[in-house]
Every structure is written in structure tokens, then in C-alpha cells.
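Q&A log
Question type: sequence-to-structure
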Amino acid sequence: MATCRIPALLTLLTVAALSLSKAAGQSCPSATPNTCFNAPGTASICCPGSCGASTGPNGMTATCAGAATPTLSNRAIFNFTEANTNCEGQAAAPGQGNTFGDWCTYIAPLVDESNNVIGNTTYLISNYRTSTPSGNYYELNIETFFFGPDDSGKTDSISIYGVLLAEETELIVLGGTGKYRGAKGYVLTRPAECNDAGDVCYFPKDFFLV
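Response status: OK
Response body:
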């Protein structure tokens, strides 16, 4: 794992690693009380009823039975040893993303659920409440997904906004460009899927466009 202290996004490493122990420690909320794991048992989501079949490569994506089908799904790849996914040294984040008011910018490759590179994503994240030892954090997130060869804005893109928490989170779709011009809907984030070392993680998002 990177030696520097990564901002709250790194907290998802802990959340993912502890997902198997959720039933014994951190329970699902009453509205969605059933913990559903993906096929490998490395990540889970909270469902209102029964679990659905795991989807994606090797069944990496846990689902709820009867859940709406995403319009598209993708994952951002974060390598925490690289500067573009590391908040250390960024002028707007004197607390390295872990203290109130820190702003961190990230750029990461974007892949589909077959691990084909389909573009990149840019994050601008502000910490508005200090992360806790248990892994909870509170951040405002502005993110744009560029589907294509560059991030010049002359390609298909979708921008989203909302509050990120250390659990499945719903964010609003602000709009888009190209074939996503005027896009509306919402996005669900899911727990990170990380390698054994914890220094490379996939951050999945499901888009539900209306």
C-alpha cells in the first residue's frame, strides 16, 4: 500500500476488506436489511429483499433481486502509488484530503465490467467532515466520466454530483455531452474491489438514466 495517507477514498479499502464481517459488526439499515455478497464474497450491498444473481466478470457485482437494470456500469481504476490518484502534495489539500475543507483532484482510467478501457474519469472532492477510525467519511463529489479517447469535452461524457459516504451512495446526474447531452437520472456507487495489497482498487458505479 502507498506509504502516504490517502484521503477518504482510501477508506473504501477498509470497507471492502471488512465487507465479509458486516453481519457480525456493521449491519444494514432497516429499509434494506439483507446483506447480499458478490460471487467471490469480497463485496456486498444492502437489499430490501432477496439477493439477485452476481453480475460482471467472475461475478464481482452483487445485486438485489428485482432491482432496476443500470443503463450502463463502469469502474474507475485507482492506483494509490500514482500521483494522479493521490492527494498528497496538492495545494488545496493541506490535510491530504483528511481534514475539513480539503479539495483533492483525481484522474483515473475508466473500464467497463469486462475490464476494457472506455475512457477516463475526473474527480473533484471536498472533505466536509473529518474521517473517523471506523471508516466513515463525508465528502462532496463532483465527477465527470469521459467516454472516448480524450477529456477535452468534445466526446461523450456524463457529470454527476453528490455526497460520498463509506457505503452504497446515490448521486445525481447533472447532465452530459455528445450522446449523453441532457442526461438525467442517478448513479449508485458500490464498495471498492481491491487487490490483495490494497494499493489498486476498482470503484464501481451504476448509471440509471431516465
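Response note: Residues 1-26 have pLDDT under 50 and may be disordered.
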